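Input chain follows. Return structure tokens only.
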Amino acid sequence: MDGETTETLAGLVRLLQRARQLASFRAEGEGPRSPRQLVALGIDLVAKEVRNLLPDGVDKASPTPIGKDDVGLLRLAQQLLRTVTASRLRDAARLAAGGRSGGEANTSAGA
């Protein structure tokens, strides 16, 4: 994965993590049955999936995006994601899958 794609995906993770944090804060204020709890959970799951595409050693925590609008941060994340081509995302996913299950693939091929 090239450096530009890596930095773009890392920025996307940061935006999603901040949006999840803000949605969680709002959900806590609205009570235990707040629909924002599901929104925060969904954002968290997406952030983890994107984080899994990144190579080890990439700083996923800083700099933290500023802002107090979770929806606005999600819109920024959407715009950022549009800058990454589909082929780059496929390459990142392929590399991530190979790194996680590379040993398994070699074992099954030898069986």
